[in-house]
Specification:
Largest sheet: 8 strands, antiparallel
Shape: globular
Order of helices and strands: HHHEEHHEEEEHEE
Helix content: 25-40%
Strand order of the largest sheet: 1-2-3-4-5-6-7-8
Number of helices: 6
Oligomer: single chain
CATH topology: SMI1/KNR4-like
CATH architecture: 3-Layer(aba) Sandwich
Distance between the termini: 27 Å
CATH class: Alpha Beta
Number of domains: 1
Structural class: alpha+beta
Strand content: 15-25%
Number of strands: 8
Radius of gyration: 15 Å
């Protein structure tokens, strides 16, 4: 899978993680398990997981970043296991299916892809729009150079979703 990375630092972090354009892993067990829980694994989600599955992407240390560096580990089961009810609520509010992709190393934020190709972060009390493509989303997570817009906010512990801003 070929990507045009928006910034050299993003390309370096992704390459340093072990990713190459030719990298492929078997994701059939993940698909079976995710679909068994109710998720829909879209073709873009499957392509990302085949290319990045089991990799840990480590952001570069940068004193000018807006938040601390936190590695991102691509394992959809780590994100989605037992969480479909929560994400179904978000899917209903957004009108789009979601597929889990990755979790940050502190387990405070989870990366998911919508069926329209946008990537979101499920973090503290909100879904944030990270980008319209994987390169855009990883660029933001690696460089941490801007605050992502809120796509949906919710209340804990039940994700009683309410729309705040949809891009």
């Amino acid at each position: 899978m070929h990507f045009d990375w928006p910034h050299p630092a993003t390309a370096r972090a992704v390459t340093d993680s072990g990713w190459t354009p030719a990298r492929r892993i078997d994701i059939a067990p993940w698909i079976d398990r995710l679909e068994g829980e109710g998720y829909h694994v879209s073709p873009p989600a499957a392509a990302i997981l085949e290319s990045f599955g089991n990799l840990a992407v480590r952001p570069l240390e940068d004193p000018h970043s807006l938040w601390g560096a936190d590695s991102l580990f691509f394992d959809p089961i780590d994100v989605g296991n037992g969480m479909y009810e929560r994400y179904y609520d978000f899917e209903s509010a957004l009108g789009h299916r979601m597929t889990p992709l990755a979790a940050n190393s502190s387990s405070t934020s989870f990366l998911l892809i919508l069926d329209d190709g946008r990537l979101v972060s499920d973090g503290v009390l909100a879904l944030h729009l990270l980008g319209n493509s994987l390169p855009e989303a990883l660029d933001l997570l690696i460089r941490r150079h801007r605050t992502p817009p809120t796509l949906l906010s919710y209340d804990l512990p039940i994700p009683a979703a309410r729309r705040t801003r949809v891009s």
